[in-house]
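Tip: read the tokens left to right.
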């Protein structure tokens, strides 16, 4: 029942166009083939590749075409090392040739509104921050896809959401800007085998029609067992490591802190 589905080539192999648009089979294949890369060769990312990755990020859909994000390219080795520490002590961050921090950024537009005579913007609020996070992550995911297309690899670092005070200092983050995800990018080591893709939930577990559907308890636990299949770790141990852990509690504290910087509410 929980057999993983691979792309059904027969369904799209005969398609070369759909409504006069080319069907990009290679993109779909690449989405299935991608796995996170956490160990990099010494080969630098060329300026040309870096530019393509950044330009591709900016091709992502964006709310109201506002591009509510900024991307910090971290070049300074001491900053990479500081981020490796502040992002839950993950040394491979400092070894990545290219480190990109995607920041939700409502500052650019808010400043412009404030500078414009006759324009009276309300202060940025939590809704603006979350919309900007969606924008920033859409751009980051485009960067991931472009990275893969160039034969490089990447890994998201969610821990950039932790330790807001430290991250703010390292990256000089001003008001109304908040880092929301980080990507480390580089070339795989030669002959490095691609890691097996960790299993995904079956679509039935996560895709619903017309309204949300809570799975029955047994169905839920079956889906979770499928996800943990092949691991020695129990669900309780997983909960301790991922949910109750210090890093996870710190992330929750830190994000609440970031969001305090977006003070507008109905009452204000
Ligand atoms: C929001 C987000 C945060 C992540 N943070 C980390 C991280 O801090 N460290 C890490 O090694 N991998 C991180 N990852 C990568 C996931 O562990 C990885 O995507 C997941 O295990 C699935 O594996 P795959 O990417 O190889 O398919 C993160 C991924 C996402 C989307």
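Filled-in amino acids:
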């Amino acid at each position: 029942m929980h057999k993983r589905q691979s792309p059904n080539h027969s369904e799209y192999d005969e398609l070369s166009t759909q409504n006069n648009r080319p069907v990009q089979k290679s993109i779909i294949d690449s989405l299935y083939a991608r796995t996170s890369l956490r160990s990099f060769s010494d080969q630098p990312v060329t300026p040309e590749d870096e530019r393509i990755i950044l330009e591709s990020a900016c091709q992502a859909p964006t709310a109201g075409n506002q591009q509510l994000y900024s991307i910090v390219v971290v070049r300074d080795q001491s900053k990479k090392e500081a981020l490796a520490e502040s992002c839950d002590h993950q040394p491979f961050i400092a070894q990545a040739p290219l480190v990109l921090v995607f920041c939700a950024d409502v500052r650019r537009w808010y400043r412009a509104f404030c500078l414009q005579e006759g324009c009276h913007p309300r202060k940025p609020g939590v809704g603006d921050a979350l919309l900007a996070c969606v924008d920033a992550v859409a751009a980051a995911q485009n960067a991931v896809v472009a990275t893969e297309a160039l034969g490089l690899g990447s890994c998201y670092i969610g821990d950039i959401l932790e330790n807001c005070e430290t991250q703010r200092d390292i990256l000089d983050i001003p008001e109304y800007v908040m880092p929301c995800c980080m990507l480390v990018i580089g070339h795989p080591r030669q002959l490095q085998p691609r890691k097996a893709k960790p299993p995904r939930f079956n679509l039935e577990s996560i895709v619903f029609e017309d309204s949300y559907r809570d799975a029955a308890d047994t169905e839920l636990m079956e889906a979770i067992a499928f996800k943990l299949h092949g691991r020695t770790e129990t669900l309780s141990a997983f909960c301790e490591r991922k949910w109750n852990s210090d890093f996870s509690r710190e992330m929750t504290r830190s994000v609440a802190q970031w969001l305090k910087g977006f003070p507008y509410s109905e009452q204000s």
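Residues 35-36, 38, 90, 155-159, 181, 197-198 surround flavin mononucleotide (CB under 6 Å). Confidence is low (pLDDT under 50) at residues 1-5.
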